[in-house]
């Protein structure tokens, strides 16, 4: 099985197919022609001694330095080596592979002037399960993700480090074992490989897909909590949501009602109390607003994964070579900051529901859901852990996009910090998943005290899935193991869990 890329039509489903289902990648026939045409413009410009940034000039502040024809190849390899100064823990293998795919797709648009054989090697690496080791820190998110993408480019010239079939080795050895040959970069090619937003966008794509799945899961977990706390269903009925017609809010309210249909544990207004606390009553308003953010993020990432983001851009139809700023990551920086803020709120409201589940002053359940209150602490400290993660998220959610530090002797005087924003959003999502795992554990335990046989059919499926990873608590144990195990289940089996929630 394979997908075709042309720089214009890559989808999230296709990204998933390549990264997780082993689909191969091919260049479409139309894209092949466009790639060849833009390369011809580069070579003709060199023959005619036309000065083009990054082809026969230096980079950044050195843009006014003209390079001789004899040194054009050296210029490109020097660029890759000098710019490969990313630091810190490497991106995950998943992110590295997405970076390969997204960079290949951007180059396939045919505005970058790269040779077909260079692009084909990038695709061959993806198809042969060779992924570069790319440190995660060091990008300013303008002039592209220069540092991380340089580590990607090192692989193509047989340098740097790579993962081949799960084993870490030198880039050259990885190519050799995969039966591939490194290339020698020619004019413009080094710049074409590293001048783009594919690091922040790759992290953004992975973060978005996990966030969307987690936000959907949050509705089902919240529904189970409502049963554990004998929540009032009136707040979810269509009337109140029809007069504030946010589609996402209405959708969440409808889903909560569908999950709770047939429950013997929920209540109505005045049956036990007149209204619930905000963390229960306002689930549609908060979760719905998160879904609004996710729609925004999806829209921006969809544009970005099918964009030409390098510089200069080569327009073969007109023959123009234009130095612009499509490498500037501001659209993705804003989107990633917004994503981090939204997912922080998913965790924040979840933690408040956890507090209502364990606090004996806020419910009629055994204190801290303990099987023997006093002798056994039960789930008391799980709320501490959730509160700690929520507090950490508040720091991580400080917008990176409001920051800028000039670089390259002030030639590059405003940057996006988009990759930092994406990395922080991704970490927030990991933290938020653990908070939701804690809520799920507490909600399931509350259901045991209420009588799990009284759950709605849909939430009973959620309960059963939780109990696959976390047995009913009959005595104190090391709860961090339960939380980590369930968080892993929520990540690895999320589509199956969501199926249980949605069907």
With strands numbered from the N-terminus, the spatial order across the biggest sheet is 4-6-7
Q: State the fourth-level CATH superfamily of the largest domain.
A: Fumarase/aspartase (Central domain)
CATH architecture of the largest domain: Up-down Bundle
Name the shape in a single word: elongated
Domain unit count: 2
State the separation between the terminal residues, measured CA to CA: 29 Å
List how many beta strands DSSP finds. 9
Mean pLDDT comes to 94
Q: Decide which structural class fits the backbone.
A: mainly alpha
Report the radius of gyration as a whole number of Å.
26 Å
Would you kindly provide a written description of the structure presented here, covering whatever features stand out?
This protein folds into two domains: 2-196, Fumarase/aspartase (N-terminal domain) (Fumarase C, Chain B, domain 1, Orthogonal Bundle), CATH 1.10.275.10; 204-502, Fumarase C, Chain A, domain 2 (Up-down Bundle). The protein has 19 helices and nine strands. The protein has helices spanning 12-20, 29-47, 72-83, 93-108, 116-127, 146-156, 171-177, 189-194, 198-228, 238-242, 247-260, 278-281, 283-304, 330-358, 380-396, 418-450, 457-469, 479-492, 494-502; strands at residues 2-5, 24-27, 87-90, 130-132, 135-137, 161-164, 167-170, 313-315, 320-322. Strands 4-6-7 form a three-stranded antiparallel beta sheet. It has a two-stranded parallel sheet with strand order 1-2. Strands 3-5 form a two-stranded antiparallel sheet. Helix 16 (418-450) crosses helix 18. The longest helix has 33 residues, at 418-450. Mean pLDDT is 94; it is low at 496-503. There is a cross-link at residues 142-144 (5-imidazolinone (Ala-Gly)). It comes from Peribacillus butanolivorans.
